[in-house]
């Protein structure tokens, strides 16, 4: 999180507040009254923003979160034929709002037609993504690649 946010030149105090807020936001993962679905493309998981051991730890965190009862994490593997490109990250909050992260800001999308475009894109990726044990096996392979890199690096 720090490695990504440091690229936004927020300043030390703003960076600390933003990281604290994002860590606090992760508490929702344990709220069983909510249901969360995540679709992550494999290239994002392999992007080396941190040293290999830390990347392996991040993969383990995702694997752990995938076992929570109200969390559905899916991974679109590189070897899967694609009909779309992610373009940028986005969060479908509900059927009325999507947030889009850009380099300089978070854009809030509320026009129903635009929200529908993002929901459709999410659903397309979710439909071809790996789930459950297949997804966790893929995550384990990515983690092991980072650990081998750590050992040989």
Q: Approximately how much helix is present in the residues?
A: 40-55%
* Biggest sheet overview: 3 strands, antiparallel
Question: Nearest-angstrom radius of gyration?
Answer: 16 Å
Shape: globular
Q: What is the SS-derived class?
A: alpha+beta
Tally of separate domains: 3
Instruction: Please mark out the parts with pLDDT under 50 across 5 or more consecutive residues, or reply none.
Output: none
Helix tally? 6
Let me know the average pLDDT. 88
Beta strand %: 15-25%
Q: Would you report the number of β strands?
A: 5
What order do the helices and strands follow? HHEHHEEEEHH
Straight-line N-to-C gap: 23 Å
Strand order of the largest sheet: 3-4-5
Short descriptors:
153 residues; alpha+beta; two-stranded parallel sheet; 17% strand
Structural notes for this entry:
The structure is a single chain. This protein is α+β, with helices and mostly antiparallel strands and 153 residues long. The protein folds into 3 domains: 1-30, no CATH class; 34-77 and 131-153, no CATH class; 81-128, no CATH class. It has 6 helices and 5 strands, in the order H-H-E-H-H-E-E-E-E-H-H. The strands form 2 sheets. The chain has a 3-stranded antiparallel sheet with strand order 3-4-5, with helices on one face. A hairpin with a 2-residue loop joins strand 3 and strand 4 (97-101). Helix 4 packs antiparallel against helix 6. The radius of gyration is 16 Å and the shape is globular. The chain starts with a helix and ends with a helix.
Short account of what is shown:
The chain has 153 residues and is of the alpha+beta class. The protein contains six helices and five strands, in the order ααβααββββαα. The protein has a three-stranded antiparallel sheet, with helices on one face. Strands 1-2 form a two-stranded parallel sheet.
């Amino acid at each position: 999180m720090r490695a990504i946010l440091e690229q936004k030149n927020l300043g030390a105090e703003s960076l600390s507040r933003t990281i604290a807020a994002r860590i606090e936001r992760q508490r929702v993962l344990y709220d069983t009254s909510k249901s969360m679905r995540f679709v992550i493309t494999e290239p994002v998981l392999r992007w080396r923003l941190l040293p290999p051991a830390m990347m392996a730890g991040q993969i383990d965190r995702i694997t752990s979160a995938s076992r929570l009862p109200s969390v559905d994490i899916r991974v679109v593997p590189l070897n899967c034929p694609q009909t779309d490109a992610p373009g940028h990250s986005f969060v479908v909050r509900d059927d009325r709002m999507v947030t889009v992260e850009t380099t300089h800001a978070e854009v809030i999308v509320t026009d129903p037609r635009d929200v529908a475009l993002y929901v459709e894109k999410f659903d397309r990726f979710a439909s071809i993504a790996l789930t459950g044990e297949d997804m966790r096996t893929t995550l384990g392979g990515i983690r092991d690649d980072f650990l081998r890199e750590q050992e040989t690096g």
